[in-house]
Design brief:
CATH architecture: 3-Layer(aba) Sandwich
Distance between the termini: 50 Å
Number of domains: 1
Largest sheet: 7 strands, parallel
Order of helices and strands: EHEEHEHEHEEHEEHEEHEHHEHH
Shape: globular
Structural class: alpha/beta
Radius of gyration: 19 Å
Strand order of the largest sheet: 3-2-1-4-5-6-10
Number of helices: 11
CATH class: Alpha Beta
């Protein structure tokens, strides 16, 4: 009898990639889908859609029946929201609810998708690790704060007997980035020639397929209660634009923006957004994050899980191709 995996966030970027990797391995997949969700990322796949909600304990308990492993990849990932309380309900309360349901159903393994945003980060170009010191006041913006609290809440279930492994993805790139993510939007803006300049910052990039496979490796090989950074290459934003230029033949932005005027503009944008309810053109949290080089060390995941480190440039090309084919590029 095939093992069955339950995946939350399966219609999203990382979640849909996890689903595809699980299907490659011959597992049955049951995907939690909220009413009204865009299921385009699951179209044509042999997946059981389970209609429910992270805040509906009964739907979670029923959905997990017969499953052996849970991949909790769902999250409200936005750099700005008019109602932060909703983000905390989904990211924190929703995580607690599904961990309770997993404990009730005695699952063999639970993998929780956190973020490198919850980890300590020196910010000076020295990569952060799973054990770099960090505290809630270090978190910039409601997304990071909510994920930090959610990760801490999930970790408490280990003491109650839940076989939990936490993964901290860095910045995945590749196909299926439907919304797109903030990093995907940078790629789309570059392709649409809306990126005339750049900030002096850096990111850790990983192919989304490697990130998804890292979740499965965590279920198979990860140590209960441990955290694993799923990342690959530390690159400046200028490096990333250079790769995109080589891939597309388009010119990379050459003007480096000074930080303080952009920060001031972000504060003004944020204030206007509170009045209008419209998303700011320059999200304050994004600019504040850019003050640090978000570099991380994935050596532990490579060593203990066997995390693949495939070409980031190839991943960027797959992202470019996918955005073009799916109508994100104008003209």
């Amino acid at each position: 009898m095939k093992k069955k995996a339950f995946v939350t966030g399966a219609t999203g970027f990382i979640g849909a990639s996890i689903v595809r990797e699980l299907l490659k391995d011959g597992l049955e997949v049951r995907a939690l889908v909220r009413a009204g969700s865009n299921t385009a990322n699951l179209a044509g796949l042999d997946v059981e859609l389970w209609r429910g909600d992270l805040l509906d304990q009964d739907s979670l308990r029923q959905g997990l029946k017969g499953c052996s492993v849970l991949y909790h990849a769902a999250a409200d990932y936005r750099l700005w929201t008019r109602d932060p309380a909703e983000m905390y309900r989904i990211n924190v309360d929703g995580t607690v609810a599904i961990m309770e349901a997993a404990l009730h159903n005695a699952l063999e393994r639970v993998v929780y998708t956190s973020s490198v945003g919850t980890l300590g980060n020196p910010g000076n170009g020295t990569p952060g690790t799973e054990v770099t010191p960090v505290a809630l006041p270090d978190m910039v913006g409601h997304y990071k704060k909510s994920k930090f609290l959610a990760e801490r809440a999930a970790a408490k279930f280990v003491a109650r007997g839940l076989p939990l492994v936490i993964v901290n993805p860095s910045t995945p790139v590749g196909p299926l980035d439907v919304k797109p993510t903030p990093t995907g939007k940078i790629i789309v803006d570059f392709l649409n020639r809306k990126m005339p300049a750049y900030l002096d910052t850096g990111l850790n990039i990983i192919a989304v397929e490697d990130c998804a496979r890292g979740h499965i490796l965590a279920a198979e090989r990860g140590r209960t209660g441990e955290k694993y950074i799923l990342g690959n290459s530390n690159l400046t934003l200028r490096d990333i634009f250079g790769m995109l230029s080589e891939i597309t033949g388009q010119s990379a932005p050459k003007v480096r923006l000074p930080y303080m005027p952009i920060l001031l503009a972000a504060y003004v944008n944020e204030s206007l957004s509170r009045i209008t309810g419209k998303e700011p053109l320059i999200p304050l949290a994004g600019v504040q994050m850019a003050a640090k080089y978000m570099y991380f060390d994935s050596a532990k995941a490579v060593r203990e899980l066997g995390l693949s480190q495939t070409s980031v440039k190839d991943a960027l090309k797959r992202a470019v191709d996918w955005f073009r084919v799916n109508g994100y590029v104008k003209g």
